[in-house]
Design goal:
globular
């Protein structure tokens, strides 16, 4: 997207460099991620960087409203409500499709906002590997207002805090088979906390513990939650002692309720030039005639599950529970990144943190996804190159 950096990168690109990058990723933990790593990072020029930062500020202003919990109370069903909710989310993600406006200028358009962790540690690692193997200009950085050491220490202070690392667990469902496992491995390396399957979390009264490799009982004082409720509700085969909705003597970092409060449920409350118009389906008085310009989304699914992209009146009328859906103006991604063949579309996820003592969330890092297909995602990019997960480098 930044033409000079892009030309410089493409002119020096070789498949050998790309393979060396992949080999380094695989060797790091003797693990091959089950998602595609793109051949290129994304170079984000100053104009687009300013717009992305402005968009995050405008959206954050709504999340900081004193009545935000009241606005989002209906997002929480009693059967999913977890006790001891904190004042605000700790982790915040904003996904933007990169588009062109009527004047031909690049502009970010919000796809989704999530009060849930993302690949904070992996994205720092992959940024350094791109820089090691490719020509990334010195005046570009994936981080915002900090270096990697400060970034890791910030994450340590938020996730581990004053606790001993062995008393903090990263909680997930069968973490060894998750697409995000590479981030769990990076987190373990940098923060020294244990990644634990929810079925291995043990209970004793209101206390929680796990058994380490020697069979010793280790108390759990804090949970770094990576369990997605959408997946948990489908896993009737899991046998667990631990249930989210019970009262436990434990601290949450990334309280589960924010997964619901800051989600697609939030989108209709956002009014910004960077946010496509969105309505709760239950509040829609008239179905638009131009449905080809809209998408229908279930509010509490993850990773694009259940989204109806090619929409018609019958699909809307057949929706069993309109309370759980939103209708959103379609975002038209622009293929803005030149590659060695056809240009690719780009989605940038801005990674934010909101520590307890901070007045508002702030941007720390990012994640990029590249696509040659109709939409972002694996099933739209089979057998294609220059697509997949990546990182954005911001011009400074």
């Amino acid at each position: 997207m930044q033409p000079n950096a892009r030309k410089r990168f493409n002119s020096s690109f070789t498949t050998d460099k790309y393979q060396a990058l992949l080999d380094d990723v695989h060797r790091k933990f003797d693990h091959k991620p089950n998602f595609r790593i793109a051949e290129t990072p994304v170079f984000i020029g100053n104009d687009l960087r300013i717009k992305l930062f402005d968009a995050c500020d405008q959206i954050s202003a709504v999340l900081c409203r004193s009545d935000f919990k009241e606005l989002t109370e209906l997002s929480l069903q009693d059967s999913y409500r977890v006790p001891n909710e904190d004042d605000h989310t700790t982790f915040l993600q904003m996904d933007f499709g990169i588009c062109r406006d009527d004047d031909g200028q690049l502009v970010p358009k919000l796809i989704e906002v999530q009060g849930f962790p993302s690949l904070y540690l992996y994205q720092d690692m992959i940024a350094h590997l791109y820089r090691r193997h490719f020509d990334v200009p010195d005046d570009y950085s994936h981080l915002v207002n900090m270096g990697s050491e400060e970034y890791i220490e910030l994450l340590r202070s938020i996730i581990v805090g004053d606790h001993h690392p062995e008393n903090v667990v990263l909680l997930e469902i069968e973490p060894h088979i998750q697409t995000t496992r590479i981030d769990f491995l990076c987190t373990d390396e940098k923060l020294k906390i244990k990644t634990l399957c929810i079925s291995d979390l043990k209970t004793s009264g209101k206390s929680l513990y796990y058994l380490n490799e020697e069979g010793k009982k280790i108390d759990v004082h804090r949970i770094y939650n990576r369990v997605i409720f959408d997946e948990l509700l489908q896993r009737h085969d899991l046998r667990t002692e631990f249930f989210f909705t019970r009262e436990w003597d434990v601290e949450w970092v990334g309280h589960p309720n924010w997964f619901f409060r800051i989600s697609k449920f939030t989108l209709p409350f956002l009014d910004s030039p960077y946010v496509p118009k969105t309505w709760f389906l239950r509040d829609l008085h008239q179905i638009p005639e131009d449905l080809e310009n809209y998408v229908l989304k279930p509010m509490f699914s993850f990773s694009g599950a259940g989204v109806i992209f090619h929409l018609n009146r019958q699909a809307i009328e057949a929706t069993n529970n309109p309370t759980n859906y939103i209708l959103q103006e379609k975002v038209k991604y622009e293929p803005v990144i030149e590659t060695m063949n056809e240009p690719v579309k780009c989605e940038v996820r801005m990674l934010l943190l909101w520590p307890r003592n901070a007045q508002k969330p702030f941007i720390v890092n990012n994640l990029a996804r590249l696509s040659k297909g109709e939409m972002i995602g694996v099933k739209y990019n089979k057998d294609k190159d220059w697509v997949g997960g990546s990182i954005g480098f911001f011009q400074s």
